[in-house]
Amino acid sequence: MELRQLKYFIEVARTEHMTQASEELHVAQSAVSRQITKLEEELGIKLFDRIGRNMQLTAVGEDFLKQAKIALNELQKAQAIVEEYADPTIGEIRVGLPNSIATKVLPAVISAFREKYPRITYQFMEGSNRDLKQMLIAGDLDVTFLSPVPEENEEIMPHRFFDEKLKLIVPSGHRLAKKHSVALKDLAEEKFILYPQDFDLYHLVDESARSKGFSPEIIFQSRDFHTIQGLVGAGLGISILPEMILDGAIFKETRSIALMDQELRRSVGIITTKKRNMSPSETLFRDFLLLYFEENN
């Protein structure tokens, strides 16, 4: 089995068409077809059903595709590591970002890192904490920011940078709009607009409210903080969001208010995987982050 065969197989599986796959790979169609046939003969199993001009994965082909992607990813990573050992200041880092910290944390950090290591490139992926942790463990990410930062376990190594307060936002005409601070227990009768339940922020607010003796009435949920602020500004409810998001981005139709409850804060940091060694460029990035946040907090 050759690396080339895996690449061709994955591309044919993606496009479901031999001609389109050959165009994407910039090789002759006959070369792609020949390598797929050789791969099937070597494995002794049919990976595709030929339906007219289309290529449809068999059940075995579907299972093989999952493992082929992992194998190809690891082989490419191994090649990159060898190249990076010759020069650690080159390479590509795949960085995960919860969208609740992407707009504030990322630009300053990447700008500072690029000044020092301009030849290192990046792929950025956004998602919920759960999605990003799964991508890291699966090998689709090299490092991911998270908030809150989980505890260390057999799969991940956390690095905590700082804690951030959550703040209340209300419509500008709300009864609490002129308050300097508010206790969560005083919001028991309010209608809430929050992130979805797969976000840790949702559970942080929900669990804190329940500890105060009430279950928040949630009328809207959104993954986008601009949408949440817009709904609050329209007078549809209130929300609790990280201070970092609200810093410099508070809508004129809303007001930001401090919360008295000490548990309404979250940790911010990164996690890396214990399942493989970090490449030289990833190590540079991690160490840079540790020093950057130590000096700036």
From TrEMBL:
Q: Read off the Gene3D superfamilies from this record.
A: 3.40.190.290, Winged helix-like DNA-binding domain superfamily/Winged helix DNA-binding domain
Q: Which InterPro entries match?
A: HTH-type_LysR_regulators (IPR050950), LysR_HTH_N (IPR000847), LysR_subst-bd (IPR005119), WH-like_DNA-bd_sf (IPR036388), WH_DNA-bd_sf (IPR036390)
Q: Known CDD domains for this protein?
A: PBP2_GltC_like (cd08434)
**A Gene Ontology MF term for this entry?**
DNA-binding transcription factor activity
Q: What are the entry keywords?
A: DNA-binding, Transcription, Transcription regulation
The record's section on Pfam families has:
HTH_1, LysR_substrate
Q: Does the keyword 4Fe-4S apply?
A: no
Q: What is this protein called?
A: LysR family transcriptional regulator
